[in-house]
Amino acid sequence: MGKLIYSMITSLDGYVSDPDGKFDWGFPEQELHEFVNELSRSFGTYLYGRRMYETMVYWETAHTLADPPPFILEYARAWQAADKVVYSTTLNEVASTRTRIERTFDPDAVRALKAESDLDITVDGPNLAAQAVRAGLVDEFQLYVAPVIVGGGNPVFPPVRVDLELLDERRFGNGVVHLRYGVRHDA
């Protein structure tokens, strides 16, 4: 059975993008990207909202860039090999292989996907993740906290309480801290 993991880059004050919708402060450098690559080996499926998918579909062709670094190629290959589910009422077609569109988020379908999966599943993007969090589907939270305060924007979490336990942490040379939390079921 796969775990459902909510994984996001966030500012210290809890936003995935600033008030102008920008997240250029969150791009990982090589050390962090190699760590993300290592974690992504356990992901078999990515669940995306439309906007997050439109950001991430870059990886479908990243390997075609002129002389990409090995860590970029590694992530592109892993992303291309995984299944992608895009939840959107407006997207008519996808621009990547192994990708399908779902019109609504169905918690029971995600539960079934988790039960059938040998690999972990990520839910990426705060709006879609909010639905999964509220449905009690998220097993783990993996946050990459960037050393920046943006003062507003799109929040990383919905207004809901979830009791967590710290499973792991790691600091990177660029000031980013990776925090991995599991959901506490005894609270």
UniProtKB/TrEMBL annotation:
InterPro entries for the chain: DHFR-like_dom_sf, RibDG_C, Riboflavin_Biosynth_HTPR
Recorded superkingdom: Bacteria
Entry's transmembrane regions: none
Start and end residues of each Bacterial bifunctional deaminase-reductase C-terminal domain: 3-177
One Pfam family of this chain: RibD_C
PANTHER family the record matches: 2,5-DIAMINO-6-RIBOSYLAMINO-4(3H)-PYRIMIDINONE 5'-PHOSPHATE REDUCTASE, DIHYDROFOLATE REDUCTASE FAMILY PROTEIN (AFU_ORTHOLOGUE AFUA_8G06820)
UniProt-recorded name of the protein: Dihydrofolate reductase family protein
